[in-house]
Design a protein that fits this description.
single chain, mainly beta, four-stranded antiparallel beta sheet, 11 strands
Amino acid sequence: VQLVESGGGLVQPGGSLRLSCAVFGLRVDSYAIGWYRQAPGKQREGVSCINSSANDTYYSESVEGRFTISRDIAKNTVYLQMNSLKPEDTGAYYCNTRGFWGQGTQVTVSS
């Protein structure tokens, strides 16, 4: 199983980014997939998760109402749409399923 994140970058506060997690070796509709982030000097934290049926999602309190998780079964990819970004959203973002991690994609929110 391999997960490949992309879509990170430098964005100004209030801006948006869409992260992608391409999954290989496992169907995205077979297991729950989550997004996590790790800010410098801090522990990795869960941000969002989507279940295998895509009928249940989770968001941490810090991103609720600003981030949206979704998936495309045909592309076997999970997305994280991030709006109204804040400097405290800065960090490396990772996707995870069944204990497999991607390499991460860096998000920096700064003016």
